[in-house]
Amino acid sequence: MALVLNEDQLLLKDSAQSFCQQLAPVSVLRRLRDSNDETGFDQAIWTQMVDLGWAGMAIPEAYGGYGFGYGGLGVVLEETGRTLVSSPLISTVLLAATAINELGSEQQKQELLPKIVAGELLVALALDENSSHAPSRIHTSAERSGDGFILNGAKTFVLDGHVAQKLIVVARSSGEIDSKQGIGLFLVDATLEGIAINRTHMVDSRNSAKIEFSQVEVGADALLGEADGGFDGLDRVLDIARIGLAAEMLGSIQEVFERILDFLKTREQFGILIGSFQGLQHRAATMYSEIELCKSVVRAALAGLDDPAKSREDIAELASIAKAKLSEVFFEVSNEGIQMHGGIGMTDEFDIGFFLKRARVAQQFLGDASFHRDRYASLNNF
Amino acid sequence: MQALEKFQKNTREWLQANCPESMRTAMVADEVVWGGRNARFKNPDSKLWLERMAARGWTCPTWPAEYGGGGLNKEEAIILNQELRRINARPALTSFGISMLGPVLLESGSVDQIMEHIPKIVAGEIRWCQGYSEPGSGSDLASLSTRAELHGDTYTINGSKVWTSYADQADWIFCLVRTDFEVPKHAGISFILFDMASPGITTKPIQLISGGSPFCETFFDDVKVPQRNLVGRLNEGWSIAKRLLQHERTMISSFGLSSGQSDRGGTTTSNLASVEAAAMHYRGDSDRLSDAVLRDRIAQFKIDSAAFAYTSQRSIEESKQGQGPNATSSMLKNYGCELNKRRYELLMQALGSQGLGWEGDGFNSDELQVTREWLRSKANSIEGGTSEIQLNVIAKRVLGLPDIMSMSKQQGSK
After folding, report:
1. Which residues in chain A are contacts of B299 at CB distance < 8 A?
2. What is the pTM assigned to this prediction?
3. Which ipTM was obtained for this model?
4. CATH (residue range B128-235)
5. How big is the CA angle at A124 (ends A123 and A130), to the nearest 5 degrees?
6. Ramachandran bin of A178, using left for φ above 0, alpha for ψ from -120 to 50, beta for the remaining angles
């Protein structure tokens, strides 16, 4: 397993880095927030990201993508994490396109994936129903009706749910709550009758929605995969997304840490640089060590996704290792980002607060550290 | 690529034919092979295994073949290591000659010194110990005061060392001595080698909280050492000393990698090798650990262990051929030691009162061993430079943070 970037990935990293630093810095997110932007992301920047091929990075060439693998997408996500780029990269590319690519029929893939690659289609995954991630805790029902289904229920924390043209709705056609049996994925137009979408303004200034489904009629062709045996496929999609999200978190963590180091090397108190104080040095050295571990697990997990020899269980374990570890370290480093900057870190004018806010959302999304430690233990039979 | 595949195939075949069956089982504490003039082989297979591996130079796979080493390049060495792990092979030889002295001698020693010592390290003929710490010089290693005075072509050494691992069983010592008292402390230290059978040397084992005595006090009283045994230049021993510490830290960091065997950190065997298995065994749990808090802590520990193993692997991939360890060795040392300590604390928690026995009836030997190893593991974050010193090294050499004590003591820190 290669834990270092190859030449193609290094080139990609350079170009992604200069794009994000120059064209999509943190000030863009600040502007979107301050102007209460309706979409929550900058359409012009998204168009440029699409032009760079980022929306098709991991999509096979047969469907208009670039076949760069998840290793490639991970490199891009890491750089977008450094400047907190708000874009449909997570919702549409990492989650929805992966779901369609992994679970869709040939016809669905032919129809939808090229549109995502071209930036013409935004899709959101409507999964969570509770305030904490629990992918089998699905109340939303899919009742068979004629050839199709009728959807009823409510979803929360639907990333980019307010701008997506299509929704992938996780719903139950049979089985008890928490059962992994009886769950299916339904791809529906967001404009269908009976769908009520309420944008929620999240603390990280990215956008989610609460969505209610009331007697929503969908055809049999809406099914993505099987109607009641969809959980394993969903879990596979979620693992890919967890690893991609971990890559984005890695970028944010490194950025916070570098900003801390810069501050320690320039801020003077008591007539000397504060970075010479051992109390701060040891905390910085501890963070450095944890971040090195984060880099390794993200690289290992991304390499695992592109390695056909890895089993489903291997990927599940790698995903939980990555999401647990990155969630834990992002928590610590984002807190230190405020504390080590002192008073200035508390001001809105200073950017570091955006990283703290993003940290908590990213930690929670797709399962926090304790969710993934529990899952890791179960995967390892203890 | 083809050459590597061929190497892998040949290696696998050779190991299949030459690694004795009993050497493919988990290491047992008293069967670790240290070599030396008084080498003991409790299991006769371990002698055979050592001889066969040493004949190919595979006790030191990457050392030059002209000095008895394996002469393998980095890729080949990784393959050899993988193949050894694949059959769960025990290390044929464990020694401070391999993990500490050899690498710096190859870098800084004279041709004569290399010719004299390297082949014997490869073959396990000479067992080395490390003369670093002194009663007054622990973390502030560079303040050491054991003196070496030159008369004619012979040094006379006087002073004492402490925490000298296995000094009572070692044949030779690599030792830091002060050869100039008039200059700043780092500029008056030399690195010298001598025979522990020389007149004037006495060793006294120190009993630890674990009950074991792996360390000694070592006293030098007018010990005569030939001038040619000085490694590198006079008064320039500190840079060699620091380089050796990087190798030592890399070795100690491996304690965090797995439960198999280690040369200074203890061993675990049987169903106690895995913390979660032990925790479930002692609670009578069958499919899920009933103590939810312990379960979470074990999961966190295992996730960190996996992340650490990937990091060690990445560090090898990133290092260039022959470059050896770098400043990240401090990070790996620190993290690996803390992980190993966490493992033993979790094992103690897993065993409950069965992990609290000291000796005698009521406890099996594995349980008693865990208690002792738990105590022994506390030294992991002290030996080879304390965790606090490693954090200092990371802060200054890796992160480039300003050094408030650069003019005084701190740079002399071990």
Report:
1. 324, 373-374, 376-377, 380
2. 0.90
3. 0.96
4. 2.40.110.10
5. 170
6. left
